[in-house]
Amino acid sequence: MPAERKVPEMIDRPMSFCPGCGHGIIIRLICECLEELGQDQNVIFPIGVGCSSNLGGGLVADRLHCLHGRAGAVATGIKRVNPDNLVITYQGDGDAYSIGIAETTNAAYRNENITVITVNNTNFGMTGGQMSLTTMEGQKTSTTVHGRDCSVTGFPIRFPELVASQFHPAYVARGSVSSPANIKKTKGYIKKALQAQINREGYSMVEVMSPCPVNWGMKPIQAMERINNDLISYYPLGEFTEKGGETR
Ligand SMILES: Cc1ncc(C[n+]2csc(CCOP(=O)(O)OP(=O)(O)O)c2C)c(N)n1
Ligand SMILES: [Mg+2]
Residue limits of the Thiamine pyrophosphate enzyme TPP-binding domain (predicted)? Predict the structure, then answer.
């Protein structure tokens, strides 16, 4: 008999993501971690604008839908007033990096005791697949119809590496939902990030590589393969901080 796979109790109805989207997997991982850490009744989600907004659609948890890109600032305020609550921003690459780079960077710079989950699908998914700061060189999007030209736009940003190398965060990692093994590792990263916040160690961030088959013009399996074959070499998976999130 296969082991029973219980949907976390925090998820009370199906969510409205496109077929093959990675958001649903990531939300489930976050909820599993929250339940396992006994934090599901203690969490507040400042949510970004984008497909990440759909986190609010099926979840039994306190959440606040922030202005586009501003979740880092909103989370700072919530956490400083309610230090005992677990505060997790849930944002896309366009939200956290393109429009929200000031708020995301400043919260990391200040080492705010919050957890930032960024879903990197290399485009603005919700609005029809425009270029974001993480769009790959040569990638065709609705605003780079001939492929991204980095001599004009700058190069795809590796934000977790920036935070880990220039600031003093508690925990920074990058995961992916492109294989069962990667999903399992990503859950471990999310759990460590949340544990770092519980331990009051400071800023934690997990970026997750996630497929967007509809805007990439691919079938779901091809989109997973694109992550494994083309994206991970530029966006390496793993932990970028030496410690953090260990139960002491
Ligand atoms: C101030 C403002 N500018 C632009 C938009 C349009 N908009 C909505 S979602 C989005 C991008 C979302 O991209 P991302 O954060 O990567 O999330 P995804 O949908 O890819 O998960 C944009 C530009 C907006 N809602 N508000
Ligand atoms: Mg995106």
Answer: 58-208
